[in-house]
Amino acid sequence: MNIVLLSGGSGKRLWPLSNDVRSKQFIKIFKNQEGDYESMVQRVYRQIKKADSSASVTIATSKTQVSSIHNQLGENVGISIEPCRRDTFPAIALATAYLTDVKGISEEEAVVVCPVDPYVNDDYFQALKELSALAQQGEANLVLMGIEPTYPSEKYGYIIPTSAEHVSKVETFKEKPDVKTAQDYIDRGALWNGGVFAYKLKYVLQRAHELIDFTDYYDLYTKYETLTKISFDYAVAEKETDISVMRFAGEWKDLGTWNTLTEAMEENVVGKGILNETCENVHVLNELDMPILCMGLKDVIVAASAEGIIVSDKEQSSYIKPFVDAIDQQIMFAEKSWGSFKVLDVQEESMTIAVTLNAGHKMNYHSHQRRDEVWTVISGQGRTIVDGMEQPVAPGDVITIQAGCKHTIIADTQLRVIEVQLGEDITVEDKCKHELEE
Amino acid sequence: MNIVLLSGGSGKRLWPLSNDVRSKQFIKIFKNQEGDYESMVQRVYRQIKKADSSASVTIATSKTQVSSIHNQLGENVGISIEPCRRDTFPAIALATAYLTDVKGISEEEAVVVCPVDPYVNDDYFQALKELSALAQQGEANLVLMGIEPTYPSEKYGYIIPTSAEHVSKVETFKEKPDVKTAQDYIDRGALWNGGVFAYKLKYVLQRAHELIDFTDYYDLYTKYETLTKISFDYAVAEKETDISVMRFAGEWKDLGTWNTLTEAMEENVVGKGILNETCENVHVLNELDMPILCMGLKDVIVAASAEGIIVSDKEQSSYIKPFVDAIDQQIMFAEKSWGSFKVLDVQEESMTIAVTLNAGHKMNYHSHQRRDEVWTVISGQGRTIVDGMEQPVAPGDVITIQAGCKHTIIADTQLRVIEVQLGEDITVEDKCKHELEE
What pTM value is reported for the model? Predict the structure, then answer.
């Protein structure tokens, strides 16, 4: 089975664990059978490999998520990188071209496209295999998964099938309705549109060529910024007449708010947290080093990261967005291609950060115009290059870097460094990259 | 007026803002008329000076609080330092001897003794003046303040007066009762014993000489550790026959739990915090740099410091102690005689801390056996002495200190330093003090 996972943008509804640089699908929140915590993307990837160990998985996402994906899934997963966000039709066209032109998959093969973040069981992945087979057999140009509704939701679009059979033709699509209309749809046999569908590669390539002037993947990638933002539903699905839907009645949850996310947690506390015996339906997600003590709370979510802390009634937590928009947020923690960093101390003319470089990785060779830096190595082995001079470094070594000085650090083993930045005007923009002659 | 403020020990009921090294009376929580936040001790000191600008204030406390007291009240406040905790009778005897032998106050003068942490209005301090005058006039050997009870509390001892007059003789004392007994006492005209009383210095000196073999303040200080733990009530008040009580009917609150403390707060949020419009009776006390967002909560206290975070129903918060006892707490922030420190990062073989030295202060001259240190100066001007060599330091300067090396830093202006400690076994015990030849 070929599968494309659409890994969507950053969301604020799960602040402070998701934000402008970190998306909800990377939060490690689910305990797996080995007792380790895994993220949505890790859980889905593991489930796919369990259902079909030879599945070819490609993640369609933006540049900002590449580091997190490699850190969580390893280096072997395929990634179709969107140079910028252009909605689902350009993203799916690019990923489809990636499968044929980069992965060398035949245009006659089918692919299943689905979101990276549904909370589902193994039966969902069996259904994906069935969906793939239907597309491969030529059941229709496009075969959708229709999810049996469990309540009249306003959050989803609806698919109206022509019959109640397991697989049937699609009569029409309906936009997100109000509750009453949703109930009418359900009474007519409508299914939720979960954004899951399968097609033969050549089908979407043909649609793409009709709508976009491009030769191959590389050409499409280059002109990606010039493309119009348009959804796959609008550009393709709603215009297609040869289209089928396959029913799926298993568990399917969209974990988009603290309320729905905590429903899927097996434990009430992830990280350092204590609930006293009078707490009811309380969940704590704590990424900080300090403990959170909860007493006498009911239906409350507490989530904490270096960005901030939310304490909310679970129902209320879905109204979080405008409050988070109003917070002037400094990025305090980020995963990078080379490791991660964490801001420890911010003063008027200094900033102290803890940097972790993964073994075999290095920073870009760079300089700053308006700040000096002092590195103190606290663990690991590696090398620094400062103005062309390379030297080995080990715990206790101190490297001082004046403004203007080119520098990098290379981790031979995992390397941890305390970096003190000193200057009147410390910004991320103050960075010049340089070529390193090696 | 001479006044001795008893500044009690550390408490855990206001964790994480009070702990083993920080007591509740130093938490800056009350907004004064200038819009600045002040602590209980600062509020009480300001109120005393307003009631009697020439009042001589002495704080009776342990060594561990001296830095915090000087930081919050300045260098001019008198402090009677208890070398160790020996309950209230030795503490009051020591403070009384301090007033005569160190401050040179006549034994014929009266003094008022009261706790440092009641939440009261200006009328309370007028009552203290009246209490002092009564003792000075010889109304009785000991003149107590009796607080008009507002409910049958189990938390206080009771004083039964012989009459309902404003000042009357004391018939008897009663220990903390159950609610029913408390109501009986109140029906008989009993008053709360708030631990406030006045006497002429010679009176307590005489009692002290009867019970302890000592010559003067210095002798008493030296043998303080050998003294028996005994309360002033038990050693003196309950045995005294010439004893009066003066009624006080003004506001008097004991802010010992989050529930009572937040009742006295004028604002719902101290520090970075946001309450949405569906929050009711929610208080946030946030000492962290990151924001706390509260949504849809009712009757909840959220308090956060570098030690941890409590989120509690207000009623429930009084049961906090066993939970805090169970937390293995590393001290993450502390005020010192020379400034303060904050732990930024803890790893297996390193610890990074931010150190602030107040102008004119210095660290002890010391060395460590099992760790190296790297100091990076981030702001201010000063000098370091490393193995006897003095050198000036300014922002950007880095000082590396090998294990065994004697070192100190002297702040000419307020000085901030990032200190990286490196070693396999980093403990506060690994510290040798040395004499500095100057």
Answer: 0.80
